[in-house]
Design brief:
The protein is mainly beta and about 650 residues long. The chain has 6 domains: about 15-120, no CATH class; about 125-225, no CATH class; about 240-335, no CATH class; about 345-435, no CATH class; about 445-540, no CATH class; about 545-645, no CATH class. The chain has 6 helices and 49 strands. The two termini are about 20 Å apart.
């Protein structure tokens, strides 16, 4: 549960989550009016919008509410304020808009990334000031000591200056780096910060032209270092500014934040290197190519080998290259927490269904949703096909829930869309997909590497004890294993790729601790924790009015399964546990009605079956009917289910 945050010196209580103050939003240009609705209140609270075209070379554009929408700065240039009035940019209460065909912002041939930072105590602030030529202080409203400060003269041609708390272990205020260059840190004795450390209300600028020329006008962007948050336990921390030392290995340093990041800026300090920027929307998979943009260069988006590999408590550097991980090299970073942090209020926020190319507009993504998604399963409902499983953390690769096969690469399985996944652009209606979004209390995805230790804790961000856990080794052939908390102590489980009954002797959870609201435990067995193996783990839980993980005993005829919903279940997964039975799936997109209901089974390649009436709708959840075709209500038989409203 998200805790109340105490913000700034006034200690005014306000419930804020990362989704209220930061957004990575991807869009395609339209050469006309474009409104980006990302939920960030820029008109009322103020902040910064940073835009970069992805597919061609052009400058990074930074616009903030302190200078006004008519001016932009380029992070890769020494230019001061650039007149942007012709782009008709506006800061809105729910994001921003523009009306332009400009290639840097909104050309119909281009794709774009935008990052929005809201002015918020303990997260981010923007201030402007006029230089004096002699050391002076500048007030800010960050409410905490800045972890990073980025300053640019707006009325002159100068380099950008960056202060970072980890640029030096003892006196970072004696150093700076230009954001627009590849230079190593400059100092000691640099005059940018007046050799004075910033405080929670002020920062100091010295006599350097880049930060304090007499009569010069400046803008400063301030980023907090607050990984633990106001609570002090990390549950509400949203941003961290830190450092690491490279080891020159493809298995690089592990950076602990206490939460999973969604946006990471990295720069080497002891030698020249590019500034690199990655985020989980454009592509930050655990062991695939990281999509990189360079704040110091206008280059189009590049794909690095795995560079920043996120995990539930931080990230690991997975590159032997000097840009990220030279042996003995020192690196600074800014990391922003992944959202959402707040529990959803409706099932339609976190679960979606669509048929491939259903809109007929010939544009990607092929499978559409109304929000970014994190995991999906799709299949050919008409002709029969493997049930294809893919996730944002392992994108451009897939597993099959109906067999033991290892993960297979497939480049169209991209997730860099605000509204779905898959880069296909044709209409091919037999393909149907279920799509899930990670959210506290509902669903989480964890990707990890095994280490063969006993009773190993695998951290997760579900925020509650998982009630249904599914795990599969990705780089080897093995079963999909499924368990529930009440089965763990007796090492009982199911296999998603088989119809078999609940079985004991599940070696992957033999002798392990019960799952908690922060960790799931696995044994040293290769099924879930073998050294050299990579895994994907899915956690589901009951969230009132949103989802229900439950069980029932069959009565041989018909019974209502009350899930606590008010509008019925849109998705129902049922598995018999005391005997054999498929993993049956029904949904309202294909039909949960009072007559026959189409069903699919996750453990087979069978096409959709439409000739039986195994379930019926009910506002509280769903109704199960005994039908020999599925046997989902056999008298005295036991079942588990997952239902989503």
């Amino acid at each position: 549960m998200l805790k109340t945050k105490l913000l700034g010196a006034t200690a005014a209580a306000e419930l804020l989550a990362i989704e209220d103050v930061f957004s990575t939003y991807l869009y395609t240009g339209n050469s006309s009016t474009q409104t980006i609705t990302n939920g960030i209140d820029l008109a009322g609270e103020g902040g910064l919008v940073w835009i970069k075209v992805r597919n061609v070379a052009d400058s990074h554009a930074l616009l903030d509410t302190e200078r006004g929408a008519g001016f932009e700065l380029w992070s890769n240039s020494t230019n001061g304020n650039i007149n942007a009035s012709g782009k008709n940019f506006s800061f809105l209460g729910t994001g921003f808009s523009m009306n332009t065909a400009d290639g840097q912002y909104n050309n119909s041939s281009n794709t774009y990334a935008s990052w929005t930072f809201r002015k918020t105590p303990r997260f981010f602030d923007v201030v402007t000031y006029t230089g004096t030529g002699s050391a002076r202080t500048v007030n800010h409203n960050l409410g905490s000591v800045p972890g990073c400060i980025i300053v640019k003269q707006t009325g002159g041609t100068t380099n950008w200056s960056v202060y970072h708390r980890s640029m030096d272990a003892s006196a970072p205020e004696n150093y700076y780096m230009p954001l627009n260059l590849t230079d190593a840190r400059i100092g000691p004795g640099a005059s940018q910060w007046g050799s004075t450390a910033p405080t929670d209300t002020q920062f100091t600028v010295g006599t350097g032209t880049n930060t304090n020329a007499s009569g010069g006008t400046y803008v400063a962007y301030l980023f907090a270092h607050d990984p633990l948050g106001p609570s002090g336990d990390g549950s509400d921390g949203m941003i961290a500014c830190g450092s690491y030392t490279g080891n020159g290995s493809a298995t690089g340093p592990v950076v602990s934040l206490g939460w999973e990041p969604q946006w990471v800026l990295v720069k080497r300090t002891d030698n020249t290197s590019l500034w690199t920027l990655s985020d989980n929307m454009r592509g930050q998979p655990v062991d695939g190519a990281t999509a990189i943009l360079y704040p110091n260069a206008p280059d189009a988006e590049g794909a690095a080998t795995t560079a920043v590999s996120p995990n539930a408590t931080g990230f690991q550097v997975m590159s032997a290259g000097t840009t990220f991980n030279a042996s003995g090299g020192t690196y600074i970073y800014i990391a922003i927490r992944r959202g959402p942090m707040r529990e959803p209020t409706s099932g339609t926020e976190v679960f979606f269904m669509d048929t491939y190319g259903s809109t007929g507009d010939g544009k990607a993504p092929a499978f559409r949703s109304s929000a970014p998604i994190d995991m999906a399963i799709y299949t050919d409902t008409v002709n029969g096909l493997n049930k294809i499983n893919t996730s944002r953390l392992t994108q451009k690769a897939y597993l099959m829930t109906d067999n033991t096969t290892a993960e297979t690469s497939n480049s169209p399985l991209a997730y860099d869309y605000q509204n779905g996944y898959h880069s296909g652009t044709t209409t091919f209606s037999p393909y149907f997909s279920w799509m899930f979004r990670r959210a506290p209390g509902f669903f989480d995805v964890v990707a990890y590497s095994g280490d063969s230790t006993s009773n190993r804790a695998i951290p997760h961000n579900l925020g509650v004890q998982p009630e249904l856990t599914i795990v599969k080794v990705r780089n080897a052939a093995d079963n999909w294993f499924v368990t529930k908390p009440e089965w763990v102590s007796s090492a009982q489980g199911l296999r998603l790729n088989f119809a078999s009954a609940l079985g004991s002797g599940q070696s992957w959870i033999t002798g392990v601790s019960d799952p908690t609201d922060t960790n799931f435990y696995v044994s040293s067995n290769n099924a879930a924790n073998g050294s050299g193996y990579n895994y994907i783990m899915y956690h589901f839980a009951t969230l009132s009015g949103i989802s229900k993980v439950g069980s029932y005993t069959g009565n041989g005829s018909s019974q209502t399964i009350n899930c606590g919903f008010t509008g019925g279940a849109r998705f129902v997964l049922i598995k018999r546990t005391d005997s054999t039975g498929d993993w049956y799936v029904w949904d309202t997109a294909r039909g949960i009605v009072s007559g026959n209901d189409p069903h699919l089974s996750l453990n087979t390649t069978a096409a959709e079956v439409t000739s039986d009436d195994s379930i019926d709708p009910d506002s509280s959840g769903f109704i199960v009917n005994q039908d020999a075709a599925t046997n989902v209500n056999v008298s005295s038989a036991t079942y588990i289910y997952l239902a989503i409203a």
